[in-house]
């Protein structure tokens, strides 16, 4: 009986680890696409009706269209935009995942601002996609992420 429980535990830990790797890869690919100004890779990270929002300094929530975001990023040269992140938490339940990532943003190699991203992902057709991102942006009290 103990051997069966051990095998089941090992299988579940292995699946959970792979799931987290897939989620991390998707998020890292989004920022790689931004850095490389790759609109195809960027678009592939998002679910069809994804939502992108920013919380402004006064607490207002600003909506941004995903297509407009991709178009604006694509206007930069490769390497102009770099967002360095640290994945602090991944929580999953079935086809839902939540990921929190503090970040430092660099424009043309110079520090611009910092904040945090909160991602909600959905698993569709056996593939993780970003359904929702909300972020904060500030220039003060920043700890740059290396």
Automatic annotation (TrEMBL):
This is Lumazine-binding. SUPFAM superfamilies: NTF2-like. Pfam families: Lumazine_bd_2 (PF12893). Gene3D superfamilies: 3.10.450.50. PROSITE patterns: PROKAR_LIPOPROTEIN.
């Amino acid at each position: 009986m103990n051997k069966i429980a051990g095998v089941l535990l090992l299988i579940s830990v292995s699946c959970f680890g792979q799931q987290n790797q897939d989620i991390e890869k998707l998020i890292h690919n989004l920022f790689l696409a931004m850095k490389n100004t790759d609109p195809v890779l960027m678009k592939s990270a998002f679910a069809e009706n994804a939502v992108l929002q920013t919380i402004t300094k006064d607490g207002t929530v600003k909506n941004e269209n995903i297509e407009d975001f991709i178009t604006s990023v694509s206007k930069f040269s490769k390497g102009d935009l770099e967002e360095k992140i640290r994945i602090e938490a991944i929580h999953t339940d079935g086809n839902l995942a939540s990921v929190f990532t503090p970040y430092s943003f660099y424009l043309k190699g110079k520090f611009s601002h910092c904040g945090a991203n909160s991602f909600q992902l959905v698993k569709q057709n056996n593939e993780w996609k970003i359904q929702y991102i909300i972020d904060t942006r500030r220039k003060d009290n920043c700890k740059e992420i290396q």
